Structure formats: structure tokens, C-alpha cells
Amino acid sequence: MLALCDLRVSYGAIEVVHGISLDVAAGECVALIGANGAGKSSTLKAICGLVPVGSGSVQFEGRDITNASGHAIVRAGITMCPEGRQVFPQMSVIQNLRMGAYTRTDKDQDADLVRMMDMFPILRERQTQAAGKLSGGEQEMLAIARALMARPRICLFDEPSLGLAPKIVASVFETLAQIKAMGMTILLVEQNSMMALNLADRAYLFEAGKIVMQGPAKELKSHPDVMRAYLGH
């Protein structure tokens, strides 16, 4: 479904992603793990058109979408649940959800609103409340639901556990497991490497802007170097 080939990303004169190649098959959950500053989030942003690709390519369902505009990429079927939630704080919960469907032209949006509120009951309770008044965990649920309102074929999650209490992190990952079970294709960037590897089918380990290890998540989880550096063993 998604393939990156020799992707390079820079901020000004500083290159932060150094010629990586990876792929995500339909229905897979693929995790990108590694230390802060390793280039994981920059990779997601390059896929979504939020930062320019210096060289290399992004292919989605056989089409070259390298450096396409963000709105064109959403229309193509890719959405991102961004780091730090990035909800619209002055808008209500339901207005945030409708913004997720902004590029859609079909008439099923109300049905999807009901489906999201069934999936996240707290959003039904808070639907008229300003999103900025929600707790961090509630905002994360809203950000996930807003991404799903676009009806993507692949959803990118950037640090969904960031800044959340452990109990809420567990709830967020239960939600991601439900989304995966529904057949959604997922590309996940996550600092909590154990949680990410427990959820993922495959994983890539980033170090200093390069992929240094890849394979089935179970294999990476039991690799001595990964266990020592990222899993606290």
C-alpha cells in the first residue's frame, strides 16, 4: 500500500532522514521505533506533505505522491493523528469531528459521527464542549476519531501516548488494537517501544536518521540490542 524509496528529508541545511526505504502492506500495523530525534516523525510528515521530500519517493497504492499537497494526500486516503493531538481548542468536539471529514463529498458523514461516538462514548458526553477543555486522554480519543472521520485507507499515528498517564496509554493502545482489528492499515511512531511492538506486525528501528534494523515485531522485541537500548532490559 505504502512504499518509501531512498527518502531524504532536511530542515534547511540539516538532513534528518538519510535515504530510508520501507513499506507497509494493506491491513498491516507497522511501527517505527527509536530515540527522540531519530527521524521517525519527520518521516511521517514527509509522507503527509507537511515537510518537503529532498530526494527519493513516496508511493501510495502504486501512485507517486512525493511532495503532493497535504489536502491531496488526505483525499488520496492517508490521514495522520498528529503528535500532541493538535485539536482545534476553541471548536466543539463535534465541530472537530466534522473537520476530519472536511474533504469528503459523500452523504454518510452523520452516520460516521454516530459510529465515532459509539466507539468513543466520552465524545458523545462531551460533544458540545470546547475541545481545549478536554483532558489529554480525551483529546487523544478526539484526535483519533477525527482522523478516522476522513475514512482513510491508512492512518499514521505520531506519538499517541505522549504526555499521557500510564492508565490512559493502555486505553489508547486498546483503541488502536480495535482499529487494527477493523482492518485499518496503520503506520505508528511511538516512544513506548514495548507497547508499539506488542501492537505491530512489523517494525523498523531508526537511529540518527537511518533504519538500522527491521523485521517482525516479535523478533525485534526479543533482539538483545533492542531489549537493552529500548525495552529496559
Automatic annotation (TrEMBL):
One example GO MF annotation: ATP binding
Keyword Ligase listed: no
Pfam families: ABC_tran (PF00005)
Any single biological process term in GO: L-amino acid transport
CDD domains in UniProt: ABC_TM1139_LivF_branched (cd03224)
Record keywords: Amino-acid transport, ATP-binding, Nucleotide-binding, Transport
SUPFAM superfamilies documented for this protein: P-loop containing nucleoside triphosphate hydrolases
Domain of life: Bacteria
Entry-linked SMART domains: AAA (SM00382)
ATP-binding listed as a keyword: yes
Domain ABC transporter: 2-233
Signal peptide limits: none
InterPro entries with a match to the protein in the record: AAA+_ATPase (IPR003593), ABC_transporter-like_ATP-bd (IPR003439), BCAA_Transport_ATP-bd_LivF (IPR052156), P-loop_NTPase (IPR027417)
Similarity comment: Belongs to the ABC transporter superfamily.
Protein name: ABC transporter ATP-binding protein
Species name: Candidatus Raskinella chloraquaticus
